[in-house]
Amino acid sequence: MAVEFPDVIYPNVQYIAGVDEVGRGPLVGDVVTAAVILDPNKAIQGLTDSKKLSEKKLALLFEQINENALAVSIGRASPSEIDDINILHATMLAMQRAVEGLLITPDFVFVDGNRCPALKMPSEAIVKGDLRVAAISAASIIAKVTRDREMVELDKQYPQYGFAKHKGYPTKAHFEAIQTHGVTVEYRKSFKPVKKILGLL
């Protein structure tokens, strides 16, 4: 279970932010990141890796985090930015934007994964952090629900692609839809499957 507040390890730290991303693998849409500073006086039960939660539980926790956290911020990088600087650098940029968007400046930042973006405050990358640190779990939930909802909206615009179902990830049905209907402006044109369909490989 995620550690609620790792302030024992960092005794002089008042505000700890957790950061996570969703959407590195999809062929379409933004890579979305979130930064969350939890309130030590308002514990949220059930925080864990967003991939392990049902849609109903995600929606519930999304509301609880927004209501009870001290600060929540979304960061993103667009498909054109992903194409320009690659998905890794775009993810780091989106994480920077999420942290900079917090209304409270954190003293320390925990980042899910094995590397940290360039930040103005100390930070630490934690592999499987969304299982180990509650603030990262919260960030993963905020980022996932935000991006999933955006894919549902995109589905209304382009119902023939099935975005609401596969959320932009490379599935068989998604490939078939691209083959039939082509590529929209929301696609990441530097990603190999998209390049292939565009005849750029």
Can you walk through the features of this model?
The chain is an alpha/beta fold and 201 residues long. The chain has one domain: Nucleotidyltransferase, domain 5, CATH 3.30.420.10. Helix content is 41%, strand content 15%. The chain contains 8 helices and 5 strands, in the order ββαβααββααααα. The protein has a 5-stranded mixed sheet. A hairpin with an 8-residue loop joins strand 1 (16-22) and strand 2. Helix 1 crosses helix 5. It starts with 15 loop residues before the first strand and ends with a helix. The model is unreliable at 1-8 (pLDDT under 50).
SSE layout:
Layout: E1 16-22, E2 31-37, H1 55-68, E3 71-77, H2 79-85, H3 87-100, E4 108-112, E5 123-126, H4 129-132, H5 134-157, H6 163-166, H7 172-181, H8 192-197
Parallel strand pairs: 1-4, 4-5
Antiparallel strand pairs: 1-2, 2-3
Helix pairs in contact: 1-5, 2-3
Give descriptors for this structure.
alpha/beta; 15% strand; 8 helices; 201 residues; Nucleotidyltransferase, domain 5; five-stranded mixed beta sheet
